[in-house]
Design a protein that fits this description.
The chain is of the alpha+beta class. 50% of the residues lie in helices and 12% in strands. A six-stranded antiparallel sheet has the order 6-9-4-1-14-13, covered by helices on one side. Strands 2, 3, 5, 12, 15 and 16 form a six-stranded antiparallel sheet that branches. Helix 20 packs antiparallel against helix 21.
């Protein structure tokens, strides 16, 4: 290694590269590739004889890196660009670093850079990773400032962080949860898979199986049975190719006061869309949410952190009829599209006396023609996509079947709408919650019957009834196809008992971390204080926290003074150790006399002893603090005296 600095100093470059890998979905493959190139350049410079880089060259590289970063990520994503530039700056600064003070500057910058990971993910893994990175960063600073080696420096930094953690926990619990003085711009990230406000399943070649967590849910009544249809978006407009969102879905309404229903608590991960999740007809009193007439809930403003909310779930109220304008909206289909399907629906209408008989004919059509449920359907670019699906390809996933069923119902003048959401969820019996992932995304139909109201129809249940229970990951029919789509992940190896056990335990930890730490807001804090201290819990919590702070401040004040008195300066410690050669107390005689006697006892150290005395006199008698170089020299002199003595 050609660098004069310890190789572990450059671990900060590895950390920057690791952060870029974790945030590859936010920053893109291009930025991660740029960081990887700079990382490779850094590695080559460490283990070879590097050329001296001029400040002008580094400035040009920095400018090019900034422009490249902004172009790769896009200026609209201002937060992403800012964090990416900090990562690039830290990496380039380290490539250029030649002096100890430059590494100190890098460490100070990293105390701000590493925690930026929390802007994108607040998982337990991210918290532990940032904590480890900060421990190493602090150890580097201890090596720079106090010449501590790697192991002692790491011990000191880890001990310091461990001491700080209880203080941090105290502040999290007792510090008032004030409204934010400013907020970051809304997240711009597009989800890997999952929901979209516009649905066109016939244009999808392969349904991506992302294991990204969407939300976790717990029920007040543990006896509630599935299948769980998590409603999110209602699509009641069809243009011939895509099902679109209703403009009325963003209209907030005051939730009705219904006595019957079930309660559920959901912790939803941040998303690029505001729509949240509920069962049947759901509404929430959470101040951060709105409820609408469709029985779905949505965020008032997007958030970059998980949100916890409670919903009341009830069945749709029976309705005798729909208003004329709303009836027309839910039976409207564009003219000139899918003539074969329209004709088929009219044929069924002629031989059906009610909606149930019409649906039964639809079910038999799918079964008799042996339609196939697959995650890799035959794509269609035809203008008559439903026709092509029903009469030619006859394979697809939930979106294909729901879209075709809704079109058939509308062709028969039966009000119908497409619903996007999630189906099922993986149950954790130990903690009593359900985990829903992006690969659980699902689409089904809701149709209207006079006197009954809106009802759910899932044509996927006819083709793949196993899909109605559990999660898509548990569907044996698609086991190979599903596993291949996941690639390398813990879920992909869930058929291995030991790996699956580890995965579930990690998810349990992450669930508790999100519920207890990340979502500890003002409401939870108020409830906690009320449980602890009674009616005036917040007031008593404030008084107690102030008393504890005052007591700790007094203790710390006296402790610091005691340590200062009890711990002698290093110069005095060196002197006392040297005087022991005279076999008497260091306070006997003056310092100069003792040094003179030591020169007679150790004549070969005479010059070294007087140099030691000069530095000791400057520190103890002239009251002039020694510089870092002088302290280092004093230590060297002390070692020489001890060695020859």
């Amino acid at each position: 290694m050609s660098s004069k600095f310890p190789v572990w100093y450059y671990s900060t470059s590895v950390f920057v590269w690791l952060i870029s890998l974790i945030l590859i979905d936010d920053f893109g493959v291009g930025f991660t590739g740029l960081v990887s190139v700079l990382m490779l350049w850094q590695t080559i410079r460490i283990f070879t004889t590097p050329t001296i880089l001029s400040v002008r060259f580094i400035n040009v590289v920095t400018l090019l890196g900034a422009v490249t970063t902004a172009s790769l990520i896009g200026l609209k994503n201002s937060v992403n660009v800012f964090v990416a530039l900090m990562l690039i700056a830290s990496l380039l600064k380290q490539i250029h670093a030649k002096k100890a003070n430059q590494f100190t500057q890098i460490c100070i910058l990293n105390f701000f850079t590493y925690p930026c990971l929390f802007l994108f993910t607040q998982s337990l893994f991210a918290a532990l990773l940032v904590l480890c990175m900060l421990a190493v960063n602090l150890a580097i600073m201890l090596n720079l400032e106090q010449n501590l080696k790697l192991k002692p420096a790491l011990k000191v930094s880890i001990k310091g962080l461990i001491i700080v953690l209880p203080v941090a926990a105290f502040l999290v619990v007792f510090l008032p949860k004030l409204p934010a003085f400013w907020q970051l711009p809304q997240p711009q990230k597009e989800a890997k898979t999952g929901l979209s406000e516009n649905v066109d399943p016939f244009d999808i070649v392969s349904l991506s199986q992302s294991e990204e967590l969407v939300f976790r849910a717990t029920f007040e009544n543990e006896q509630i049975e599935g299948p769980y249809y998590w409603r999110a978006i209602i699509h009641d407009e069809f243009d011939g190719k895509r099902w679109k969102i209703s403009e009325y879905q963003r209209t907030n309404m005051k939730p009705p006061s219904l006595d019957e229903g079930e309660h559920a608590t959901i912790i939803a991960q941040p998303s690029h869309i505001p729509w949240l999740y509920g069962l049947s007809y759901s509404y929430s009193n959470n101040p951060k949410l709105n409820s609408n007439v469709f029985g779905t809930v949505y965020l008032k403003s997007l958030t970059s952190k998980p949100i916890e909310y409670s919903i009341m779930v009830s069945d749709f109220s029976p309705e005798s009829t729909l208003k004329p304008w709303y009836y027309q909206r839910n039976v409207k289909i564009p003219k000139g599209f899918n003539p074969k399907t329209t004709q088929l629906a009219q044929t069924w209408v002629m031989s059906s006396s009610n909606t149930s008989e019409f649906i039964e004919k639809m079910r038999l059509y799918f079964l008799n023609n042996q339609f196939i449920y697959t995650l890799t359907p035959t794509p269609s670019q035809s203008d008559n996509r439903v026709d092509e699906f029903l009469f030619n390809t006859q394979n697809g996933f939930c979106g294909h079947y729901a879209s075709a069923a809704a079109f058939l119902l509308r062709s028969a003048n039966i009000p119908a709408r497409l619903v996007s959401g999630y189906l099922g969820g993986e149950q954790n019996k130990n903690q009593g919650y359900y985990s829903v992932y992006q690969y659980d995304a699902h689409a089904w139909v809701e149709y209207f019957t006079p006197g009954v109201g809106w009802q759910r129809l899932d044509p996927t249940a006819w083709i793949a009834p196993e899909r109605m229970t559990g999660s898509l990951s548990q569907l044996a029919q698609l086991s190979n196809e599903f596993q291949q789509g996941l690639g390398y992940s813990l879920i992909a190896f869930s058929n291995w008992h030991s790996i699956n056990w580890v995965r579930l335990k990690l998810e349990e930890l992450d669930y508790q971390w999100t519920r207890v730490v990340i979502n500890f807001d003002r409401d939870k804090q108020s409830r906690l204080f009320k449980n602890w201290f009674g009616k005036y819990g917040t007031l008593w919590a404030g008084i107690i926290s102030l008393l504890i702070f005052a007591i700790l401040s007094v203790i710390l004040f006296f402790l610091v003074n005691y340590i200062r008195r009890a711990t002698p300066p290093i110069e005095l410690a060196y002197y006392n150790d040297i005087v022991r050669y005279l076999n008497r107390d260091s306070h006997s005689g003056s310092v100069r006399q003792n040094i003179q006697e030591l020169t007679q006892l150790l004549p070969e150290n005479e010059k070294v002893l007087w140099q030691f005395y000069a530095l000791f006199e400057k520190s103890q008698y002239q009251q002039k603090p020694l510089s870092k170089a002088e302290l280092k020299k004093l230590k060297t002199l002390y070692r020489q005296i001890k060695k020859k003595g």
